[in-house]
Amino acid sequence: MKLLIFASRRLGRLILTIFLISTIVFFVIRIIPGDPALVVAGMDATPEAIAAIRAELGMDQPIAAQYVQWLWNVVRFDFGQSLISGQRVITLVFQRFPLTLSLAILGILISIVIAIPLGVISAVKRWSAWDYTGMAFSQLGMAIPSFWLGIMLLLIFAVKIPIFPLFGSGSIVHLILPAVSLGIARAAIILRLTRASMIEELSKEYVITARAKGLTERMVKYKHALKNALLPVVTITGIQLGYMLGGAIITEQVFSLPGLGRLFLTGIYQRDFPLIQGGVVFVAIIFSLINFIVDILYSVLNPRIRIE
Amino acid sequence: MKFEPGMNGEARNNSNKNTNADAGNNGELLAVQDLDVSFELQRGAARALRGIDLSVRSGEIHGLVGESGSGKTVTSTCIMGLLPTPPARINGGRILCRGTDLLALPEAERRKTRGREIAMVFQEPAKYLNPSLKIGEQITEMLCLHLGMERSEAIERAVELFELVGLPGSKRFLSGYPHELSGGMKQRMMIAMAICCDPSILIADEPTTALDVTLQLQILKLILQLRDRFSMGVLFISHDLAVVHEISDRVSVIYAGKIVESAVRERLFNEPLHPYTRLLLLSIPDAGKRGRRLEVIPGRVPDAEHIPEGCAFHPRCPLAEKICSREIPPTVEHSEGHTAACHMIGKKWIDS
Asked: Which pTM value belongs to this model?
């Protein structure tokens, strides 16, 4: 019951966030220099042609009317048409989204699988070989730029030892190298956090109680401490996933993957306003949605949060 | 039923190998003998316990009183086997629980005694309960582990235990979390967890210090009730003499890692022998002393790295003479069951 109230309150916050983002996007697009009609019509178009295009885009309306129209469009998930290709923005986004989604999920899975066990072992066996391995990994993971890692992975595992395809997309095999290169940087962060969090929890008083109760060390560490230690990890992992869902521009570029990142990048180059506008709102919605899910998950793990 | 002292001596001689019989004869559930613990620090060694003797009999509440830093908590954590070694080091002594030397047990065996034979209640229940495990789970996991109960059986038992300590023992209550409980309820839950496997010894380390006065009384009453019901031995650790007076059958006073005086409650409070005990008693505020300045013992407890030569209390002692700074006073039994360690007893300090 408490969980239900908590969830509906968070849902309200989610809707508010999307509304605010849409508003900000609407006004920012109109403040920054550059006339979309000019882009469509070309530099040497006649004023009449430009005016016609403005009318077609609805830009001759008063700003308040445009704003209301925009919000209504957001509610209907209708972000207009691309100025360049003429396709609906939402269609373009959903063409690219499955790839970005699978890349992000695979990337976050790889980082979780590496980071959480290694982080926990590093904390439990501090200053052991495990711990040093973990720390070295996390230092390197954070220091290496992901484009360099991507190129190296391609050179080694696609060129020298051709296990994976050099480019292309469409199957999971194409996604493994990019997911690894994305995942390792994330793993570095998650590993550090897991280790620090687990060390902190192991020094808490309730761990003494757990030992005084005669529980086995395994229960003390992996039942009592770990559950609390994972709380901040869930939040950070969720945020990382949210970032990745906005498209990994550099990684997609390196592996020539047609994901959201590249779509938006070309959109920006071509001043494709409806595409940028729609893309930003779409990413914001996805990000808020992930946050919402993480909040719910967090409150399931941490009962104290529900009463706030 | 207790044996005569003479027989006791006999039995003790015969049973040095078989420590079980030894403890059985004394009726002692727990006997700490000459326990010596130090901490290895980078600066050097800190002597936390310098030969502690303590015993708890079945159905007895033994109060251990001392100022902070005197070694109370080291004593309790060492008995529980929760002292991290290193930095701590146990230099000598024995901790006999129903005759078995706990210090000689391998960790795997020792673990099984925790919560089962000896259980502990801590000072701040809010910190010592796991915030993200359900109330029921925190108690049933012990029942399943130590007593091999099935989950459903453990849940039933948990309901009974919670009712016993004055908590609503409903299944609904079991599926709540500690943060939903008040401070007093948390401590009751802690106590329910401690007694759930019917331990013979309960160590209560300042169990009422974090609670307000009305709750303190309730918790003390609860401990007394449970002691009577299960005839547990209780080691009750506190800095608060008034609380110790309220609850204990026997009281030991600890100072700088050594027991300086030990006696049954009435004797200790009415005829204290050690100057430290006397000064402690004078420092208890009470209504009769209203309007007068409260007595304060000058100085502080020495820290474990800088324990004075001779009697550790001599720098603060109003009666100290030369010998006090040179020789550690032996612990002498001045009357039956009343021991104290002071050079001046019977010399300067004649009962006034």
From this structure: 0.81
